[in-house]
Input
Amino acid sequence: MSSDRQSRDRTGDQPDNGDAHDNHDEHSPARFRRKFWLSLLLTIPVLYWSAHIQSLLAYEAVDFPGTRWIPATLATGVFFYGGWVFLHGAWRELRDRQPGMMTLIGLATLVAFLFSWIVELGLVDANALWWELATLVTIMLLGHWVEMRSIAQAHGTLEEMAKLLPDKATRITGNGEEEEVAVDELEAGDLVLVRPGENIPVDGVLCEGQGAVDESTITGESTPVEKSPGDEVVAGTTNGEGSLRIELKARGADTRLAGIMRLVADAQAAKSGAQHLADRAAGLLTAVAVGAGLVTLAAWLVAGATIDFAVIRVVTVLVIACPHALGLAIPLVVAISTTLGARNGLLVRDRRGLEEARNLDVVVFDKTGTLTLGEFRVVAIATGEDTNEEDALRIAASMERESEHPIARGIVASARDKDIELDSVTDFESITGQGVAACVDGTAFQLGGASLLESHDVTTGERLEQPAKDAAEHGQTPIYLVRDGTAVAMFAVADAIREESRAAIDELHDRGLRVAMLTGDAQAVAGAVADELGIDTVFAGVLPEDKADRIRELQRGDCKVAMVGDGINDAPALATADIGIAIGAGTDVAVEAGHIVLVRSDPRDVPRIIDLSRATYRKMLQNLAWAAGYNVVAIPLAAGVLAAWGVLLSPAVGAVLMSASTVIVAINAQLLRRTAL
Output
């Protein structure tokens, strides 16, 4: 099975790129390479026996019967073998009423071919253009070969992703035996064995074993993720160590990696506004080139030039004016920027989102789960004189380790975040509506909120009283650790702010953007988060159904607004914003809301989107400026405006210049890969 067929089987149908440039007929680097080398072999003798080249280089070619027909015969072979792809492409463009690059190349080679045979048959007294024709076709093939390689590199990420999905898998049978089967033969519920160093072939749940899995191909995160029974694993990731037994949930086109590939392919196929502009410009340039060719022919004939000289000028104009670079300027940048984003965990669902991110004025974050963890944590600790913070947190977490209460889980998670080892407890007792009691290291403790203090006449002391008031004012919940009727520690528990949030807000401010926050929390809670992060505008107490109204309110101020949320509760706001960014999707690319999906739950990826958007736009402008500027200078030169000063371009030189401009555009697009995100 071919690699292309394998890619389709694994990921489902991929859309064809719809840009004008990809109307080329069955283009591939290998095809152009073959045509170039054979055409070059045929062109060398055409040049050697060309009377013009012999005169120019002052040599006399070997003469034997039939040498007169060598240039005509071999150049005709080059025309049909090497030039047929251009003629067929021209026919397709004219059939679709979209004349472009292929039309100009096909017309130029056809004019040179027919004119040369008219001369060869003695119907016109002029010089044939066999060497010009052969070198023109050969150089155009070389330019296309180089260009196709650049395009293949730009779109190669999809093939690289497809290679991450193994064709074979090791299935564990009902009697515990191992058998190697094709992935397509696996069914939901099958048990798959993945050895160390192997790529995981399916999406599923880890049943047995544990180890570190490299998920960088999906999330862009280089640090391996520890997996243990019950954790989800994703196809295309790599098992670092330990044998894993995985229960299959999805395979092939249903895997999350395949979903990411479809997103990338869709984004690459979508046309941006700049691409539509470039397509219109390329069509206009084609008409200008044909018109310039006719004007050039008439002008030189009126000026008294020979017919063969005038035809050479026309052919050169048609070749040099090919809108190849213009047609390539945008698609390559689009392909590279999309794949660059995917490699860094930024999945583009709608090209418009990435294109417009550079114009943003305001970024609005949902608070819970976006700027915060969406989970309780201990955000501050105050202790009495004879208690230190680590001991207090160790005791409290030991008492709450078996509890399922959200605040209790937050205390335990805070201790584990600090790598604090928990102690065993005895005499555990749940005090309904107040807290818990237990003995830790032989000492009796109680743990609870304000109601515990009131019911047990617990004293707090000055060291805990003011921190507790401050916590309450910021919407945080004070939890007290009590010993012998006295509070020895106070834990302020709240939805913890992500460590990355402060850096994200600072980076957005550095880029000249304002930052707002939407939340259903009370003003005190929202204000505390905003003050800590340096957020400019706060919308507190907002119901999910009212979030879209707040986005419209900002837009009425003539602002371009991005909304960053979880893609579920925030779906209306994401759809209303100029750019919707769904954060924290992980490997679930089925998020329907938002132009851009962030794989990681890292708000720092938002400024990265803006950086990518600005870098992409700069490359588009650079390529368009070069492509347009080249034609402004090249067409008059090809027509012969500097002929009086001895400056004349042959069709072959025109082909070199046209191909060079295309290669320059391709190389400039490739430099986008150096953008640091």
User: Anything to note?
Assistant: Residues 1-26, 586-590 have pLDDT under 50 and may be disordered. DSSP finds 24 helices and 22 strands in the chain.
